[in-house]
Request: fold
Amino acid sequence: MTAAVLTRLAATGATGALHGRVGALYFADGAVVHAESPAVPDVGWRLTAGGRLSAREWEEAIEEGGPDHRAGCLLVEQGRLSRGELELCHLSALFDAAYFVLSPLDRSQQAPDRFLKEARHWFGPVRPVPVSVLQREMNRRRALLELAWPRPEVDVAPVVPAPGAGAGGAGCDEPACGRRAVLAAADGVRTPLQIARALGRSAFATLLDVRRLAAAGLVRTPEAAGPVPGGPVPRAVGPDVPEISLLYRIRDALEAL
Reply:
């Protein structure tokens, strides 16, 4: 149903906001220009948590540019961000929020179905995303999660490190490895989305890291309420098992192509 709605909004060149219980997608002339969801860190949180902007600089951009729907562009005009930085951060936040708006983690929540004509977001358009591109990216992300670990229970449960798991065993050698940071932030209480907010990073990337950590046996997978689609995924044992960190590096390299 949602796919049909998105296609219709694109075909009619709609401008406005498609709302649901877990966020909204903003359209301008049939393209998606912004997405927001309380489930994920927004552009401001990413920029301030990462130290790129101070909280005051972000608030000033909202106060000065928000009423004219151009808070984002104002950051570039004032020299606080380059155009490339703005586009990269905004697109990352847009795809991140759109994923959770269109694929709610709570399966009982419906996808967005209320369209408010002519509604505009205070951040303003940065780089419009065609609906076809958005849908392709959403499908790619769903496939990545399924490939990483077909157990969606880990998406909403507290991330509990397995006995003996440490940040050094996250299947990555680089100091800034996302999985290493996620494993270090896992305290047995915070969920993947709460860890993403604490780290100021992409919610989807954090979700994917948690699934990969679960596949490597570094974090616990909660018991499923029913059988796992496709049956259980056995963990290989024995001397012929390939190094898991090598497998992850190969997969990450292929995804980057």
About this structure: The beta strands are 16-20, 23-28, 31-36, 114-117. Residues 83-102 form the longest helix (20 residues). The chain has a mean pLDDT of 83. The chain has eleven helices and four strands.
